[in-house]
Design a protein that fits this description.
199 residues; 4-stranded mixed β-sheet; 3-stranded antiparallel β-sheet; 7 helices
Length: 199
């Protein structure tokens, strides 16, 4: 089995779209799913950076399987066209490396954080997070999100399964539909170099 590089994008995707995740309050999520528009609720704020993740397990780590706090109690799967997703990456800077750069309020930020397993254990390679700045939020919300799905129940069933079956592993979780099949998401070499990925 080939070792996973330290920096690699892994995601659920098809020929047209890639899925990223973010967690919101019930007020925002309910309106977003019903209207297929993330900003359908007045509670949605355009004036803050939004961090999205293509890694399901990293999303589970960030929101505690949706139980962490009321502001993250609903997990949404957001599908984007490949061109729009890669546009975000092309215009990005590295959040840790360039943390002192405040001259570009429209700058997309990228972080590589330790990937997590189903039980939120730290893995020996990294997962990408993408920070969409306030200056780009409107176009991202209104034009670049193709569909919105509430996957909160999947997150909670996964947590329940892990709590009640101590021997369950990733393969078993995947078999019952609780762990998405994430594959390497290949990008052009120039973009991979921009993201400081091994290529």
């Amino acid at each position: 089995m080939t070792a996973i590089p330290n920096k690699q994008i892994r995601a659920v995707f098809d020929d047209d779209t890639i899925t990223v995740y973010q967690a919101y309050s019930s007020t925002i999520a309910t309106a977003a799913v019903e209207n297929q528009m993330l900003s359908a609720s007045p509670a949605f704020k355009f004036n803050r950076m939004t961090w999205v993740k293509p890694s399901w397990c990293w999303m589970m780590y960030r929101c505690g399987y949706s139980y962490k706090d009321p502001g993250q109690e609903r997990v949404l799967a957001l599908r984007m066209k490949h061109s729009h997703f890669q546009n975000l990456l092309t215009g990005s800077s590295h959040a840790h490396k360039d943390s002192t750069d405040v001259s570009r309020p429209d700058q997309v930020r990228v972080q590589w954080d330790p990937e997590r397993g189903p039980r939120l254990e730290r893995l020996p390679y990294r997962s990408i997070q993408i920070g969409i700045p306030a200056a780009l939020t409107k176009i991202w919300v209104e034009e670049w999100i193709e569909s919105i799905e509430d996957v909160t129940e999947k997150a909670r069933r996964m947590k329940q399964t892990l709590d009640t079956a101590v021997d369950v592993d990733s393969e078993k979780l995947a078999a019952v539909g609780l762990l998405p099949h994430e594959r390497e998401y290949e990008i052009p070499q120039k973009l991979a170099q921009h993201l400081a990925m091994e290529y």
